[in-house]
Amino acid sequence: MILEELLGPRVRTKSGLTSVALNPKEKLIKDIDDQITLISGDNPPMKYLKKKGKICKNKDGSPKMRKIKSWFSKENQFKPTPSGVTFFQGENNCFDIGENSKLEILNNFKMEVLKGSYDLEINKWHSLCKRRNEEITKHRNNVNG
Fold first, then answer.
1. pTM of this prediction?
2. Residue 109 CB partners (closer than 8 Å, separation 6+)
3. Each residue of 77-119: pLDDT tens digit?
4. Cβ neighbour number for residue 115 with a 10 Å cutoff
5. CB–CB of 25/42 below 8 Å?
6. In sequence order, what E strands does 14-124 have?
7. Tens of pLDDT along 13-58?
């Protein structure tokens, strides 16, 4: 019996390229939500553990995972770095949080992003992310090609 008779017609392969791309504001909101989940401690978002650009593996061959990096430093500062790129540029690129709640800061940041208060910063941050990703792609192509 051929597969088409058993499974039906063939379909397009599912891949990251066929997933819906988020616009910069949606990506930032998702990253803020991930930070809120990380702070709450319930099932924190995870990333692959990499060394020299390669994913580290466990003895059984499965990839090693780590928690995402917090935007809050040990020095009690808030420095958002969605997609690994600092959101607030320049010398003054973070806030001292003092006695404020981390969850309150993240929720306030999210509300202001949704209202459009940081649209200029989002566009600048997105262009920096794009430039960084193009450089990574160029480097990979030079190494592999």
1. 0.76
2. 32, 80
3. 999 999 888 999 888 899 999 999 999 999 999 999 999 999 9
4. 9
5. no
6. 46-48, 50-51, 54-55, 65-67, 77-78, 95-96
7. 766 555 568 899 999 999 999 999 999 888 889 999 988 878 999 9
Kindly state the tokens that stand for 94.
């973070």
Are the beta carbons of 125 and 85 closer than 8 angstroms? yes
Side chain identity at residue 101, one-letter code: S
Q: DSSP string covering 5-40, please?
A: HHH-S--PPP-GGGSPPPPHHHHHHHHHHHHHHHHH
First to last CA, the chain: 42
N residues, the chain: 145
